[in-house]
Amino acid sequence: TPPRAGTVRTTVLSNRRQTLAVLGYIGAEATTFERLALAGRMLKEVGSRDPETLGLMALGPVSSKQGAPAQAALDALLAGALAHAFPLPTLRAPSTDERRIKQIILHGYEGGDTRYGSAVAGGTNLARWLTSLPPNILDSRGYHRAIAELARNHGLGFKWLDEAALRRAGAGAFLAVSAANEQRVAGIAHLKYRPARRNAAASAPDIALVGKGILFDTGGVNLKPHRSMLDMHTDMGGSAVALATLIALAELRAPLAADAWLAITENNIGPSAYRPQEVVRAVNGVTIQVIHTDAEGRMVLADTLALAARTKPKFMIDFATLTGAAVYALTERMSGVFTNRPALVERLVEAGRASGERVWNFPFDADYDSDLESKVADIVQCAVEGKGDHILAARFLNRFVPKDIPWVHVDLSSSTRTGGLGHINTEVTGFGVRYALELILKQNILD
């Protein structure tokens, strides 16, 4: 009787090196997520031996139509291997016994193109690396330096809008959140990728990628309790996804113009922290009545979306670890998506299936706006009660995206998950890069 799908078995070969063989069984009709999850489990077994060389093989002729399931299985194994081989940041004392994978050998990949898979894995690993960094290392100044270095290394245009520039632009929502910072080093990073023979200065972007980069979130005046605050150095995951996606597009020399806008600040507590019932004005002139200072993500995104929209992109997508409501609705296995173009919903969900980073489309009906009505401003930041906050947050952000620009909002409930997700075996998953590249390059979302 053949093993059932999802089974993982290990054995040690009787050769001189005592090679560890890890066998995984998957059905031909398995989903991308199921293949990635199996690959993650297999790589976890491999990790017990700390090998320096890893051979990957899938049964079946991967170069033919009949071998499509084997090709897909090998792609999943490669994604898992590249994730497993990537070291996340550590400040522990170095160990002389520690070994890492130095070589990955693909068997039966004749004629296969690993460029796309390598770029996707590289982007995912970059997002994981940044999101894993401690908040005293990846603070606003440190992130600014890291972004500048990455831009230089990948030939990207880069501009940093500091608080003085944001004040001139009228970015009152962002500046309310950054007000409590001890130093005036917060800002919005604007990066540009343009394909060869395209004028970076003159051309409007085909797509603008926007990311929430709250480097540590105390909750502000509405202070978080200990457990809710403990991992808030990961609240910048959306900015890491937007940045890593742009870099992957550059590495793949994608034939499109892309920008990334990253809202970089802490949400601190202090004498100058913004407070409930304050009213601030965003870049596009919309006034916001503050209700809860821990709803800071939508505040910084409001100005960042409005600034990105001024460049008149053909499409906008933002990534944010925005609401606990999305986690309660989906757990961390899927992320939520919203769009102002109902015709895109099928492709948004299909991109999740195809990439293995699954998403669920939530309602985006205009009648939800009645819960955001204010008596003293154009809109309230959030409702007093938390029910449906992921939907209300999306409706709030909608006020800062012009109606003529197609827009997708991704609430990254899968950014972190205990035990990992799919082929990623660490708590920080890097979720979003695979999804974004699938959506942009394979689902032709710009058509």
SS content category: alpha/beta
What can be said about the biggest beta sheet?
8 strands, mixed
Total helical elements:
13
Average pLDDT score:
93
> How many strands?
15
Contiguous uncertain segments of 5+ residues: none
> Which sequence of strands runs across the widest sheet?
5-6-8-7-11-15-12-13
- What would you call the shape? globular
The gyration radius over C-alpha positions equals: 22 Å
Helix content: 25-40%
Share of β-strand residues = 15-25%
Distance from N terminus to C terminus (CA atoms, Å) equals 48 Å
H and E string: EEHEHEHHEHHEEHHEEEHEHEHEEHEH
Explained architecture:
The protein has 447 residues and is an alpha/beta fold. 34% of the residues lie in helices and 18% in strands. The chain has 13 helices and 15 strands. The protein has helices spanning 32-47, 68-85, 115-132, 140-153, 163-169, 172-178, 226-229, 237-251, 296-309, 324-330, 345-355, 389-398, 433-442, and strands spanning 8-12, 20-24, 53-57, 103-107, 157-162, 187-193, 207-217, 258-267, 279-281, 287-289, 315-320, 335-339, 359-361, 379-380, 407-411. The strands form 4 sheets. It has an 8-stranded mixed sheet, with helices on both faces. Strands 9-10-14 form a 3-stranded mixed sheet. Strand 3, helix 2 (68-85) and strand 4 form a beta-alpha-beta unit. Helix 1 (32-47) crosses helix 2, helix 6 packs antiparallel against helix 9 and helix 8 (237-251) packs across helix 13 (433-442). The chain is globular.
